[in-house]
Amino acid sequence: MSKHSKALESRSSFDSESEAGPSAPNDAPPPTFQESVENDAAAFKTQFACIEIRPSDRIRLINFREDDISAVHQVVRTTWSRGIDRVRPFGESREMKLYGTPWSYRSNGDDDARRLLLRIIECLHDIGWILQSAFDITKNSSSRDNLVFRKQDPAPSPCDWIAVSFDSNDKLKIIGSPPPELVTRLLLAFGVEIQRHEATTDRIKIKFWGHPWTPSGQDTVTTSLKLLSLLEVLEICGFTLYGTIGARHDDDTASADVMVCQRQKDWILGAPILHR
C-alpha cells in the first residue's frame, strides 16, 4: 500500500471515530455541581444526638447508637446509687427511669444528680460525642435543657471534669474531682467575701457573706464580677468552660445554670489550655 493510501485510511478512521462520538468509557457526562456537593455532604455528614432530662426521674437518649446507649446505661448503673427502675423504648428514644427524683428542685442542689450528669457527659466525650449546646426549646413550666451532642472522630483526649453550681442564695459548690490547688486559689481570690468553706476530695463548698445569687441594684454588678473572678481562677488551674445546663420547675422556680468544666489529663501549671 502506498503512503498516500495509508494516509487516506488513517484520516478516514479518525473521521469515523469523531462522528461516532467518544468511546464507551467516556459516555457518562461528568457530575453536576449539585451532585458533587451532595456526594461530599453524604461523605462528611455530621451526626447529632440528644439527651432529654425529664422531670423528675427520666433520661431519654435520642439518635444514639446501641453501643453508645449501652455505655451510658453502664455509667448510670454504677453512678446512681439508688438504681434504675426500668429501661424502655419511648417513641424514637430510649428512656431510663431512675429510682428517686434526681431532677426535682432543691435549694441546695443535688450533688448526686449533678455527679451523674457529669459522668454521662464525660462518658460520651470519651467515645466522641461532644456537647454542642444545651438549651430548652419548650415552653413547659417544668423542663430542663436538652443536651445536644455532635459526633467527632477520632474522639478527643480524656479530661478531668468538674461541675460548678450556685446554690441557695449564697453557696458555691464544685463537685467531681477538684484539685487541691483550686481550693487554695479560690480562697485567695475571694478572701474576706467567704463566710466559711469545706473541701473534700470530691467537693468544694463555699458560703459567701450576703446573698450574691439573688442580687438587686448595683449588687448585680458585684455578682457578675464574682463570676469573672471564678472563671479566672478556674483557668489558672487549667479548667475551661465546656457547657452550661439550666432548669425550670413546676412552681416556676428556676435553678441557676450549672457550669461543666474540663481540663486536659496530666495538665501542669503553665501548660496551654485547650479551649474547644
UniProtKB/TrEMBL annotation:
<feature type="region of interest" description="Disordered">
    <location>
        <begin position="1"/>
        <end position="34"/>
    </location>
</feature>
<feature type="compositionally biased region" description="Basic and acidic residues">
    <location>
        <begin position="1"/>
        <end position="14"/>
    </location>
</feature>
<protein>
    <submittedName>
        <fullName>Uncharacterized protein</fullName>
    </submittedName>
</protein>
